[in-house]
Amino acid sequence: MKLPFGITAFILLLSISFTVRAQDTVLLFHPTANNLELFQKLMDDEIFQLNGYHLLGVYHPGESYDYSKAEAYIDEHKASWFSLRKITGELGAENVFSENPASIQFREIFKCSRGALFMGGPDIPPVVYGEETHLLTQVTDPHRHYLELSYLFHLLGGSQDPQWKPLLEEDKDYLVNGICLGMQTMNVATGGTMIQDIPTELYGIWNAEEILALPHDQIHRNYMDYLNTKCEGPTSYHFHRIILRKNSFFTRGIGIKKRTEPLVLSSHHQAIQTLGSGWQVAATSMDGKIIEAIQHIDYPNVTGIQFHPEKPGLFDPSIIHPLGCDSTINFQKAIENSDSYLFHLAFWKYLDKKLQQNAGD
Fold first, then answer.
1. How many C-beta neighbours within 10 Å does residue 9 have?
2. What's the confidence (pLDDT) of residue 231?
3. CA–CA separation, 41 vs 206, rounded Å?
4. Is the Cβ–Cβ distance between 73 and 89 less than 8 Å?
5. Which of 111-120, 197-206, 250-259 has the lowest mean pLDDT?
6. Domains, the chain, ranges and CATH?
7. pLDDT averaged over every residue in the chain
8. Nearest Cα to 182, choosing from 61, 84, 96, 307?
9. Of residues 277, 276, 283, the one with CA closest to residue 253
10. Distance of CA 2 to CAs 5, 6, 8, 32, 85, Å?
11. Burial 271-293 (b: 16+ CB within 10 A, else e)
12. pLDDT digit string, tens, across residues 199-249
């Protein structure tokens, strides 16, 4: 007997819920094949072990990425530690910071998970933080942003609706971490705004030559690709130091000494301008103009970082990147035998420890 569509959909939803509840789950937003491979390598190298956890990749069908590639990766590598969950419903700038067609699904994946991870990516549509679009802002995947912004608003609330009850009030130990775009999205989701282009807005610079002539710690990505036209494209990543704030999650949770000024790997032209509700600064650039990390005041396991501790080259000395037409860089060798290398290892151990503390609660 063929069941009515509504009953069939309910049974399917129930089976999905049971599957992800059967073990501790961490959500991964933007679960591309590359990101799956990245986390597999972090686990294989025992950098981020995720012992006992299942990664549930969350995406919206409107995103520009073809998620059949992620499905193929899972099948090819028999990656039973990973599965995908499509969030449906129309999302746009007009409804991401309110109850919307995805809200029921957001509450479901929150209930079945212990945390959520948000990765790097392209520029956020300025309309969602009340600004017009800078000429150097490139919005290439709006539906990805709408999904991630809305889930984070559901988790944390924001100044857009002071009466909103954040989901994290039900589980204050829930872990949330954002890397680069991930941190920026966390901030915008709670009512914050963005510097849309660092060189032009902060330093009044409009050409690559002047940017590359800045002090090393004032450069936040490698701009050599603007100058090189007849050689392999250089990496967009650039090392610079950061300042860790007193009583930040780095110095208290991770155990890094405050006087440490670690080299971190960045590739971004935008940055947080004004903080959304509930945040405090955990780290800044050396000149204090760029917020390099944030932590939530009310939720102890909610943090964001502007830099990229996940890049495989930081831990694998065999990976070589072009730096310019006549030069290369090995990320691992650039920081090996230093506090900076230990800093990167400690970051992942910190997230692991927080998840293990939450496991089975």
1. 11
2. 80
3. 38
4. no
5. 250-259
6. 23-358 (3.40.50.880)
7. 92
8. 307
9. 283
10. 9, 12, 9, 35, 25
11. bbbebbbbbebbbbbbeeebbbb
12. 999 999 999 999 999 999 999 999 998 887 678 889 999 999 999 998 899
CA 156 – CA 109 distance, rounded (Å): 15
* Helical segments of 174-289, H only: 181-189, 198-202, 208-212
Whole-structure pTM value? 0.92
Q: Which two tokens stand for residue 78?
A: 């028999």
pLDDT reported for residue 252: 85
**Tokens standing for 260?**
């440490």
Structure tokens of 320? 């070589």
Tokens of 334: 């650039």
The rounded radius of gyration (Å) of the Cα atoms in the chain is: 20
Handedness of CA 92, 94, 100, 103 (dihedral sign): positive
Q: Which class for 51: exposed (0-12), middle (13-18), buried (19 or more C-beta within 10 A)?
A: exposed
- Helical residues (DSSP H) of the chain, grouped into ranges: 5-21, 33-44, 68-76, 103-111, 142-156, 181-189, 198-202, 208-212, 331-335, 339-358
Residue 171 near residue 155, CB atoms below 8 Å: no
Q: Summarize pLDDT for 17-69 with one digit per residue, the tens.
A: 434 443 599 999 999 999 999 999 999 999 999 988 999 999 999 999 999 99
Q: Which of 254, 278, 301 is nearest to 116 (CA)?
A: 301
Q: What is the secondary structure of 65-82 as a DSSP string? A: S-THHHHHHHHHTT-TTE
- Please tell me the least confidently modeled range out of 81-90, 225-234, 329-338: 225-234
**What single-letter DSSP state applies at residue 137?**
-
Which tokens belong to 208?
A: 């690559």
pLDDT of 15 above 60: no
